Amino acid sequence: MDMKARTLRRHMKESLRNLARNGWMTFASISAVTVTLLLVGVFFVIMMNLNKVATDIEEDVSIRVHIDIAATKEDQDTLKSNIEKISEVDSVVYSPKEDELNNLISSLGEEGEAFKLFEQDNPLYDVFIVKTKQPEHLESVAKKIENLDFAFKVRYGQDDVEKLFSFIKTSRNVGLVLIVGLLFTAMFLISNTIKITIVARRKEIEIMKLVGATNSFIRWPFFMEGLMLGILGSVIPISFISMIYRYSYEYISSKLQGHFIQLLEFNPFMFQVGGLLVLLGAFIGIWGSVMSVRKFLKV
Amino acid sequence: MIEMEDVYKKYPNGVVAVSGLSVRINQGEFVYIVGPSGAGKSTFIKMMYREEKPSKGTIMINGVNLGKLKESKIPHFRRQLGVVFQDFKLLPKLTVYENVAFALEVIEEQPKYIKKRVMETLELVNLKHKARMLPTELSGGEQQRVSIARSIVNSPKVVIADEPTGNLDPETSWEIMKIFEEINTRGTTILMATHNKEIVNTIRHRVIAIENGQIIRDEQRGDYGYES
Fold first, then answer.
1. Does B91 touch chain A (CB under 8 A)?
2. Which residue in A96, A169, A201, B22 has the fewest CB atoms around it within 10 Å?
3. Does B49 contact chain A (CB < 8 Å)?
4. Contact B102 A207 (CB under 8 A)
């Protein structure tokens, strides 16, 4: 649509004037959008990070192959090369039972001290730690290894990851329902605000129609009004969320130092979240105005 | 030119406001529409500026078939006419100048042209000196002149006036008529619905009388024909 700059300026001025004139409704609508976007934003940030964590964990998941105690050094080598022959396997690392015990002791901290007694007579197994090229290959690779000679026990942590993913899925669905409800509330409030300005400007609209203003000319200021309400409503959530995220990111990152789990980095993640919230705000605003304008501007 | 042929208008509530109306009005004519309240005058006028759509029959105005006019084309059609009402329909927060300029602004005319054209028009209705006043600071007659200025600022071929003197005292009404006469002599068709017997009988023009949704009389230089 081609619109002259002058006309655009006029529409802008008109919408700003309407917003100022209905101060309280404007405030209510912007607040509704703010609350909605704040919740959407926080929720989104948490969800995306949980997803990231789950993916990190999933990528780190490996298959632990306990080697039969009866296996000789040659048997172990055969087993290793047989595992490496499976096409989905990425790497196979040997971890002797002494290392396994040390890992166990250090992972248990204070209580691990008790296990030191076992250093004389280690009950653990030598282990092959197998990584697959894709996390989804875990199960099939594990099954294949189970059938190999001297593979005493094959275990992998897929169950934990599955649980985490199903938790994410459930909370995502619950959150979505909540957010959709909030979105509608915000739209409803915006559409009411605009309805009021339309009613207040009935006479003006009537005259505009009489002298031959096109419908789109009449509608534009209302669209802009909705758009402004939506975008203004996204300012606080964006600043608030990015501020909080910056601090939390720094805090949590330092705790996670050296760990394979990482949060999403501030840049670009916060810009994506900001973009999403502005777009969502604009969408709520325009949709709210479309709803009321359509009903009220019928010829 | 305005041509109506066998026009019917039935409202959704079942009321038949106009039934079988045919009329032809040439460019530059001055026509009074008279008749008792509820006779169909308002519907007749509303159909002229396509506020109402005929249920049956054809209305042609300057080559535009109103029955077939698309919704999206209505604004452009209306730019060829001016409409004046009994209650002026001015915007109270805008000055006289702004009220008249409004009609050109919303159809996106050039600012320079708007300024020139509005001043010319205000001069025609003798209100140039009150351009900066608000409608509330004007008398009824002056307000109606602003409303007339707004209706003609776009140089329409037809001006439709629905009881333009209905809210005015007799003396002011004559002033308004003088302006309509002036506009008419410049070649603009004037269609005026009125209950003002004195005006119709003094400034003689074609009179179309409507009763029960039909034209019962159509006379050149006719008289009002009703008591009061």
1. yes
2. A169
3. yes
4. yes
Domain formed by B26-51+70-219, architecture: 3-Layer(aba) Sandwich (3.40)
Task: Say yes or no: A216 contacts chain B, CB-CB below 8 A.
Answer: no
Q: Do A299 and B74 touch (CB under 8 A)?
A: yes
Of A6, A211, A299, the CB nearest to B106: A211
For the whole model, what pTM was predicted?
Answer: 0.69
Domain regions of chain B by residue span: 26-51+70-219
- Residues in A touching B91 (Cβ below 8 Å): 203-204, 207
CA atoms within 13 A on the CB side of B224: 15
Query: Token pair 């909540």 is at which residue?
Result: A178
Domain region containing A142: 62-156
Backbone angles phi, psi at B223, to 5 degrees: -110, 175
Does the beta carbon of B38 lie under 8 angstroms from any beta carbon of chain A? no
Q: Do A112 and A252 share a domain, yes or no?
A: no
**ipTM, 2 decimals?**
0.86
